[in-house]
Specification:
With about 130 residues, the chain is α/β, with parallel strands linked by helices. It has one domain: TIM Barrel (Alpha-Beta Barrel), CATH 3.20.20. About 40% of the residues lie in helices and about 15% in strands. It has a four-stranded parallel beta sheet with strand order 1-2-3-4. β3, α4 and β4 form a beta-alpha-beta unit. The protein is globular. The protein starts with a strand and ends with a helix. The model has no long low-confidence stretch (mean pLDDT about 90).
């Protein structure tokens, strides 16, 4: 069993340098990174994280982020749809290719976005476009 540490929004690890330092301190082939592309976007380009963490990325969350302040009226649905945010998807996919990532990609979307068939179909089509980059 492998353990994956995820970069989340709690400010535990705020840079790819800290992530690498943390993994180096653990020093185990069984511990790696569950890389959240959208969460990385708020603290520096996701592609930089990918380049630095490299082969220690075990899994990825596919989600977008927006550099714009959240709309208070959005109430929990402030995350942009895939491809509608500020993530540089071509650079992210190139970085994943460069480090040889071939693992899983899990979409992380708010529950109400994934509940409807049309919404799920749209999300799958957006993910297909991302993976085709």
């Amino acid at each position: 069993m492998k353990i994956s540490i995820e970069n989340v929004g709690n400010n535990f690890i705020k840079s790819p340098e800290q992530a690498v330092e943390y993994l180096n301190a653990i020093n185990s082939e069984w511990v790696g990174w569950h890389f959240d592309i959208g969460n990385a976007g708020r603290v520096g380009p996701a592609e930089r994280w990918i380049q630095m963490i490299g082969k220690r990325i075990f899994r990825i969350h596919i989600k977008d982020y927006s550099a714009k302040p959240a709309d208070p009226a959005a109430r929990g649905n402030a995350r942009p749809k895939l491809l509608d945010g500020d993530t540089n998807w071509p650079a992210v996919m190139k970085s994943l290719d460069n480090v040889g990532y071939t693992g899983w990609a899990i979409s992380e979307q708010p529950g109400n976005q994934a509940a409807e068939v049309e919404t799920a179909r749209d999300m799958a089509q957006r993910m297909d476009r991302i993976f085709a980059l």
